[in-house]
Amino acid sequence: MKLIVTGATGFVGSEVIRQALRNARVSSMVAVARKPSKKQDPLEVKRVCQESTIAGLKAMHDAGPANPFRFLYMSGVAAERDQSKTPTFMPEYTKMRGETENQVLAFAARHKDEGFEASVAKPGLITDGSWYKAAVSFALKYTNIVPSVSVEEVAAAMLQQVVDGFEKDPLENADLIRLGKAAMQQQVKS
Fold it and tell me: Checking CA distances to 68, which of 62, 146, 151, 167 falls within 20 to 30 Å?
């Protein structure tokens, strides 16, 4: 399995790379990163999160990748695919992320005959074991506001899904926890 990781210097991207390097089924890897941007202009966020995602997907398609080609888009638990709804939390951003999910899935559906497969990971709060994130995660979990998943679990689940094939779409927070734990147990056995 050849792996392309975009956002490689990010929190989850770094963990995906760390785990992929230990995975004997990953034969090669390309890591793509960009410099962090201090600019949070909504148009720049859309360019990076949506337009660059779709442009990258099209470029990979045009390069004639191996069959099957699996593309896992990492979104978030609040992203809204139904563009007729108006989310209460960051409505423009969550609708934009949901529209990106729609575009990724539509692209894969149009190219299904060429071996393109896609799914979306929708984690909640991603924790790293720090006391601050653990406290926030605990509070959010027990108030049912936002679910949480560890960075190790989400990375293991995402890596397992692109290597073995997608179980479903979307991969919700609970799916990422379940799949991540199972993948990490498998790694220990190997």
Answer: 151
User: What is d(CA 167, CA 183) in angstroms, rounded to the nearest whole number?
Assistant: 13
The answer to whether residues 124 and 173 touch, using CB atoms and an 8 Å cutoff, is yes
Domain hosting 155: range is 2-189
31 pLDDT exceeds 80?
yes
Tens digits of residue pLDDT in 93-104: 999 999 999 999
| Predicted confidence band of residue 136 (pLDDT cuts 50, 70, 90) | low
Residue 81 is which amino acid?
A: R
Say which CATH number the domain at 97 has.
Answer: 3.40.50.720
Give residue 131's identity as a one-letter amino acid code: W
Domain count, the chain: 1
In whole angstroms, what is the distance from residue 76 CA to residue 56 CA?
A: 19
Please give the backbone phi and psi of residue 5, each rounded to the nearest 5 degrees, phi first: -115, 115
Cβ neighbours of residue 178 closer than 8 Å, sequence gap 6 or more: 157
Phi and psi for 170 in degrees, rounded to 5? -80, 165
pLDDT in tens, 104-114: 999 999 999 99
Structure tokens at 10: 């990010």
Q: Which residues pair with 144 in a beta bridge?
A: none
Task: Say how far apart CA 64 and CA 158 lie, in whole Å.
Answer: 23
Cα 166 from Cα 95, distance rounded (Å): 24
Asked if 55 contacts 27 with a C-beta cutoff of 8 angstroms, the reply is no
